[in-house]
Specification:
The longest helix has 20 residues. This protein is about 50% helix and about 10% strand. With about 220 residues, the chain is an alpha+beta fold. Strands 1-5-4-2-3 form a five-stranded mixed sheet, with helices on both faces.
Amino acid sequence: MLARSLILLAALLAASPPAHAAAAPTPQWQAGRDWLPGEPPQPTTTGGRIEVLEVFSYACPHCAHFQPYADQLKASLPADAEFTLMPADFHPNWVLFAQGFYAAKALGLVEQTHQAMFDAVYRDHRPMDSLDRIADFYAEHGADKPTFLSTAESFVINGQLSQAHRREIAYGIDSTPTLVVAGKYRIVANSGRNIGFAQMVEIAQYLVAREVAAKKKP
């Protein structure tokens, strides 16, 4: 009987996975090492939803490379989070792209032109060194060129550019692409910390999940 019990025990142990075979825990991303806390937290533009903001520019080749990752992040967000875009204005030509972006947004054209603009600049090598040429691009995607130009040069768009510039300073943005979660967590690529575009997405997802959990606490 003892021998039979020992055989059954050995069989059970063999069937059980060893401790080291357990699934690896989710990485615990650390503040100050993997993402940077914003002090103080800044207002967001998404109301009660958690904002996941990408600061970008069509003049930034790294942003073009990041675009598939941005799409992946956007598709992965829960219902109470929202992905938004904000153009940076580091250089004069970046301001032109930002002007064009906000005009396109006002005219409801961003969804169908965002990837197309990256393609025009980096695949087709089209010059976009004036607002007129940028307007030509958007006219090919449904905009009325005179309306686009008047919108881009309007008081409303100038106000949006100024607001974006203030947010850029408040967030401490000094490179693109940058992700900002909930107005208080800044995520950038850093080869020294092995943070690439895929890791940026994972960190953003982790921070969104943390914010969702915090909202559910009584």
